[in-house]
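Researcher: Next entry in the queue.
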Amino acid sequence: MKQKDLDSSPLGKIVNTPEKYNKDILVAIQRNLDYSFKAYGMDRWTAYELSWLNKAGIPQIRICEISYNASSSAIIESKSLKLYFNAFNNSHYDSEKTVLKTIQNDLQDKVKSTVNVSFRTVQDESINPYKQMFQIEESVTQIDSFNAFKFHDNNVEETLYTHIYRSLCPVTNQPDFATLFITYSGKQLDKQTLFNYLISSRNKNNFHEECISTIFNDLLNTKKIKELTVQGSFLRRGGIDITPIRSTLKSYKIIPRISLQ
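Model: Structure for this entry, 261 residues:
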């Protein structure tokens, strides 16, 4: 991430809530695309409190989902995105389609890549994505210093998850929590060493997107894993969340969120 991009962002600054729509609120930060391996994936945002006024001045509320390719030249700085969405609150639009297209065009202009935007009115809380998955910390009884990943001799295909992943914002130093999903095939990962590795990130400063890219690269660097998808469902801040996904597969599976996230 370039310092000049961060200097132009509202992160760590006291700013007023915008009173009207202004696309210039959005701040793009140049992405670090230093991948050791061919990677597919996306950055996926969910805004739970998008609101605007219809022609009659009646507030409209939608859940807004945004995704763009992990290889885009830039990412959107999170606080600027929250302020941008707040700017819609007192702005009138003739249709939901107009709002959607406005958001899509503004974001595409910033990240220089195709951006998918969709709205929904309710979240399906009946989804339970954790069936047939293994919670990493269930088999862990202690925390050790991380030295290296260990593997068992048997080959597996499995999805591991944990709710304990944490990193620190590189600007505000505030904690960011996530449910982390690791779907892979190859030699079976030793869950204790994987847990030690994930715990070692708790006091490291990094953006969400780079956290997931680092985990993806570090696991593939072991040369023990054939196929890998890493998804980080970070907890929302200010009514917006992000879900970075990195995968060796072009057609990877997206694991749905639950209310915890």
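Model: The helical segments are 3-7, 78-86, 96-111, 191-199, 208-220.
Researcher: Noted, moving on.
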